[in-house]
Design goal:
globular, five-stranded parallel beta sheet, binds adenosine monophosphate, 2 domains, alpha/beta, binds coenzyme A
């Protein structure tokens, strides 16, 4: 039996014993004696009677252990031409003070706080300050528009919103205050206060319920960590589902801390004192887990980078950061490398830097396409590790595991299931698929520690979205297969979720916005292939009979509407006005078929379609108007 199997098999056969062994990875106020229990819906709960505080475990504990002078954060912001190094001790003090400021505003255990901030150390400080108080943070990505923020405020009911005065996108300064003000105006729930971290590039004008960050922390008391139960929520992170309303994924505290600490050793092969650089954003799960919490739980230094892989100033930024901070593990999304490759195909800028500190390169967020994999493999002397996970799981489900046993990489595969995740492939009837047979990728219960504890205020949705399809299994929403050697290949979503530049988006949500335009009779939004961003949304629209306007104007209005409601991150820039959409006899739009057209798959027109010409209409329109679709699509065999 391989070393991997000797670890993996006990983890899925005897999960309770396996995860009982791992509790010593984090400091507890009260170590758990109950390892695994089940709630009333039969969902796994980990370490039910344990008590801890993740801020203590990740910060104060290291100061107490003598790491106070070690850098906890390297902040690097080419867009403001600033850099900062923050030691563990300084970070602890700044967190404890900001927690004191929040406490002054009445924030206490269990209260929610929404954080709307760019990649500045204060974002991490605000998150940990919430954790210190036992409050629940919900970070919202800066690329979302005010409506999306409003939806989250409505659902999470935060006592306080913490924001920066602006974000910076390459050379554009984006004021945040108007976005937050509009969101609060749109929400029926009103937070009691806003804390504004003022940035020099744009200072916000404060209103009567606003507090300046610096003033709030002046003379604020140093607040100690509040013990919380392992099962108490640490954060809510909203993610796209198949419907318009995002799902508030609830993360618990104890299971998450243990899982992250475990992952730092077995997946990321990092020791205390090492440097981890994750080029993502604190608004995504990757940022929560591998910029904010995991590196510090392990006593490492985390790099917070406020910039892009290209243009800030050039395609050598990542190499510079690896060199400058002696990064040992680097993690980003494949799309970032496609952007670098486009600008610097021969990676000439790599020659300007010494990246010999790098030991492993990790990618996730979308499938690592083989051309990008081979480009990276040819460029670097280190293993390129594609690993698969999702907001719901909080940490990787499948990966190559250098901390246990590194195995040869196969292009297009996320390698093996991570210990704790009993990954299986089921066919439509719920039968286990054999090697090379594609099906739904599911995780057999119990999910390991760290995975979602529920959907905020919607237990029913938790059940219907994930647990109902195959009783006893968590439905990941991805399709894939195991090959003959047990390597897992994730082939893409089986639902209406798309992945644009490593960002997860709901086409259902975009359809709701587009369908809300008064001139639109029917619409479908699907993802089409894009060389750089992996996928891009495209709207197919049938105007109402009464519509007598101009198609080009309608298209522009719909693009502006989606940008205004969801935000620039949706990258909704293509609309096709068509006269028909393919439908079933019962009148349902055949979205899967549309996706197949977009993916360039060969097929015959199904007999279930009443009007086969409608399919051709859409096909021709897409090929004419969409470069991605035209490149990909194969001729239809009627
Ligand atoms: N705040 C405000 N606007 C933002 C934003 C933010 N935090 N992030 C992105 N946007 C805007 C962009 O400015 C752009 O606006 P535009 O339409 O006016 O040009 C739009 O949203 C689309 O952004 P994006 O898709 O990110 O395109 P980009 O050209 O700015 O950058 C990449 C492309 C590939 C370089 C970038 O998406 C990237 O680095 N992706 C990595 C993804 C990632 O970290 N995923 C997490 C999992 S690892
Ligand atoms: P998010 O919840 O935003 O992290 O997005 C999760 C989704 O991104 C998954 O369900 C997959 O569809 C996709 N994804 C993430 N990582 C990978 C990967 N390594 N390979 C293939 N798809 C991935």
């Amino acid at each position: 039996m391989s070393h991997y199997q000797r670890t993996y098999q006990p983890s899925v056969k005897h999960p309770e014993a396996f995860w009982s062994e791992q509790i010593k990875r984090v400091p507890w106020y009260t170590p758990p004696t109950t390892i695994l229990s089940y709630d009333e819906q039969q969902h796994a709960r980990w370490y039910g009677d344990g008590e801890l505080n993740i801020c203590y475990a990740a910060i104060d504990h290291h100061v107490a252990q003598g790491r106070g002078e070690q850098p906890a954060i390297f902040w690097d912001s080419p867009v403001t031409q600033s850099k900062q190094t923050i030691t563990y001790q300084e970070l602890r003090d700044r967190i404890a003070c900001f927690a004191g400021g929040l406490e002054r505003l009445g924030v206490t255990k269990g209260d929610r706080v929404i954080i709307y901030m760019p990649m500045v150390p204060e974002a991490l400080i605000a998150m940990y300050a919430c954790a210190r108080l036992g409050a629940v943070h919900s970070v919202v990505f800066g690329g979302f528009a005010s409506h999306e923020l409003a939806v989250r405020i409505e659902d999470a009911e935060p006592k306080v919103v913490v924001m920066a005065s602006c974000g910076i996108e390459v050379d554009k300064v984006l004021p945040y205050k108007p976005i937050v003000e509009q969101a609060i105006a749109q929400s029926s729930f009103k937070p009691e206060a806003c804390v504004v971290y003022q940035r020099d590039l744009h200072r916000a004008v404060l209103g009567p319920d606003d507090y300046d960050w610096d003033q709030l922390i002046t003379d604020a008391p140093f607040v100690d960590c509040v013990p919380v139960k392992a099962t108490d929520p640490l954060y809510i992170l909203y993610t796209s589902g198949t419907t318009g309303k995002p799902k508030g994924v609830i993360r618990d505290t104890g299971g998450y801390a243990v899982a992250l600490a475990y992952s730092m050793e077995v997946i990321y092969a990092l020791n205390p004192g090492d440097v981890m650089f994750t080029a993502s954003d604190v608004g995504w799960v990757v940022g929560h887990s591998y910029i904010v919490y995991a590196p510090l739980l392990r006593g490492c230094t985390t790099v917070i980078y406020e910039g892009k892989p290209v243009k800030t100033p050039d395609a050598g930024s990542f190499w510079r950061l690896i060199d400058e901070y002696k990064v040992k593990s680097f993690f980003t999304a494949p799309t970032a490398f496609r952007a670098i490759k486009k600008e610097d195909p021969d990676a000439r800028l790599l020659d300007c830097y010494n990246i010999s500190s790098l030991q492993h390169l990790y990618v996730a967020g979308e499938r690592l396409d083989p051309p990008t994999f081979h480009w990276l493999e040819g460029l670097l002397d280190v293993p390129v590790i594609d690993h698969w996970w999702q907001t719901e799981t909080g940490w990787p489900i499948a990966a190559n595991l250098p901390g246990i046993e590194a195995v040869p990489v196969k292009a297009g595969s996320a390698t093996y299931p991570v210990p704790g995740f009993n990954v299986q492939i089921l066919d439509r009837d719920g039968e286990r698929a054999g090697p090379m047979q594609q099906g739904s990728v599911v995780i057999k219960q119990p999910m390991p520690p760290g995975c979602l504890a529920g959907i905020w205020r919607d237990p029913q949705r938790f059940h219907s979205a994930y647990m109902a399809a195959f009783p006893g299994y968590y439905l990941t929403g991805d399709g894939g297969y195991f090959d003959e050697d047990g390597y897992l290949f994730i082939m893409g979503r089986t639902d209406d979720v798309i992945n644009v530049a490593g960002h997860r988006l709901s086409t259902g949500e975009m359809e709701e916005v587009v369908g809300g335009h008064p001139a639109v009779a029917e619409c479908a939004v699907i993802g089409i292939h894009d060389e750089l961003k992996g996928q891009l949304p495209i709207g197919l629209v049938i105007p109402k009979d009464t519509f007598d306007g101009n198609d080009v104007t309608l298209e522009a209005e719909l693009i502006a509407l989606v940008r205004d409601r969801i935000g620039p991150v949706a990258c909704f820039k293509q609309v096709l006005v068509v006269s028909r959409l393919p439908k079933t006899r019962s009148g349902k739009i055949l979205r899967k078929l549309l996706r197949n057209i977009a993916d360039g798959k060969t097929y015959g027109i199904p007999s279930t379609i009443d009007d086969p010409t409608s399919l051709e209409d859409v096909y021709v329109a897409m090929c004419e108007r969409s470069v991605g679709a035209a490149d990909q699509a194969k001729p239809i065999d009627p």
